[in-house]
Amino acid sequence: MPGLAVRAVSVRFGGLQALEDVSFDVLPGSVVGVIGPNGAGKTTLFNVISGFVAPTAGSLEWDDQPFHPRPDRLVDAGLARTLQAVGLFPRLTALENVMVGGARSRRAGFAGALFGLPGSDRDERRLRADALDWLGRLEVAEFADRLPPTLPYPVQKRIALARALVSRPRLLLLDEPAGGLGAEDLEPLARLIRSLPGSDTPCSVLLVEHHMDLVMDVCDRVVVLDFGKRIATGTPAEVQADPAVATAYLGADVPPAGEDVTLSRADQ
């Protein structure tokens, strides 16, 4: 099935091997998690898929075609990415921040309105309506006219997520979506992630996350990296039971065969 295919990707920075021969797929309608201790290569992998880092070896495919991503063309290709930090524009309102995320998918957008291009008013009205819709879906529409620095961090995270979703991506890259959130915010986030593949604008999800409970709750498959190498892949249950994963996370001896391993180190 088409989707995103990562094929034997390696990245070297001078003498540092950040990724080595990493392969996996993100099929349409799936939620795939990437986990691993600090320094495992998770951010480098996301940067390769986003076009910020070129692989030293290997390749990417998108819809069975060679894929050479560029950060400024991700939306055109049907991908969107959130950042570890929210990355909102502090002097734009929440609504305007979300509208920025959808501007490339509209014929005129902000630039058209600025220069009076034909159809720009209509495009801006549609973009504004879509942005308000996503703020409503994420239950933060009441903050549409507020500036991000005046809002609680969990609200800012939802606004950043709305900004990514307003472009209607077919694949959403979530970079530590639970970072900085309290325990009371994790279940609503999990519900949202689980709902995306089956929504009226369905998209697959690839997420990097340190909160193991969230990963195991929402993901169909999990890819585990350690020192740039893929050491395990499978369902959440299969990954939890993999002795190599326990060793990577806990520095533990290999547990007896058949003994389950619980991953709960949110500080990794």
Comma- or semicolon-separated keywords:
22% strand, disordered C terminus, 10 helices, single chain, alpha/beta, 268 residues, 10 strands
List the helices and strands and how they pair.
Elements: E1 4-13, E2 16-26, E3 31-35, H1 42-50, E4 57-62, E5 65-66, H2 74-77, E6 79-81, H3 94-102, H4 109-115, H5 120-137, H6 153-165, E7 171-175, H7 183-195, E8 204-208, H8 212-218, E9 221-226, E10 229-234, H9 236-240, H10 243-250
Parallel strand pairs: 3-8, 3-9, 6-7, 7-8
Antiparallel strand pairs: 1-2, 1-4, 4-5, 9-10
Helix pairs in contact: 3-5, 3-6, 4-5, 5-6
Organism: Jatrophihabitans cynanchi
Keywords: ATP-binding, Nucleotide-binding, Transport
InterPro entries: AAA+_ATPase, ABC_AA/LPS_Transport, ABC_transporter-like_ATP-bd, BCA_ABC_TP_C, P-loop_NTPase
What would you call the structural class? alpha/beta
Order of helices and strands: EEEHEEHEHHHHEHEHEEHH
Strand content: 15-25%
Shape: globular
Low-confidence stretches: 253-268
Largest sheet properties: 6 strands, mixed
Spatial strand order of the main sheet? 6-7-8-3-9-10
Q: Which whole number gives the mean pLDDT? A: 84
Distance between the termini: 33 Å
DSSP helix fraction: 25-40%
Number of alpha- plus pi-helical segments: 10
Number of strands: 10
Computed Rg: 19 Å
